[in-house]
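job 3f2a | input accepted
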Amino acid sequence: MMIKKPKVICICGSTRFADLHAIARWEFEKTGENICLMINYLPEWYTKENGWNGHDHYGEIVGNKELLDQLHFRKIDLADEVYVINKDGYIGESTRNEINYALNNNKPVKYLEPIE
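job 3f2a | predicted structure (116 res):
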């Protein structure tokens, strides 16, 4: 069975909602109609092995957050649209920068929860 060219969706949002990123990716990709680009999700056992407990953006700990933020902009460049995980209305500074970047580059932006 041949599938048509999938839409590319870049999932953005706080790393504190990494589990919701993974669920969104599954929901978008399970039909074969979409390909998702998103944060690097690290399992809890890996972060504990590295002594990174209590943090939600591991790039800050290892000193490469800025690099990873720039990489996420490149993911937005590749995407057809952006999907924001805004659980309980939360949108942090990095995510707000990603939304602005997407809008400035004429990418449609959709949200998990309605924005006010």
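job 3f2a | The mean pLDDT is 87.
job 3f2a | closed
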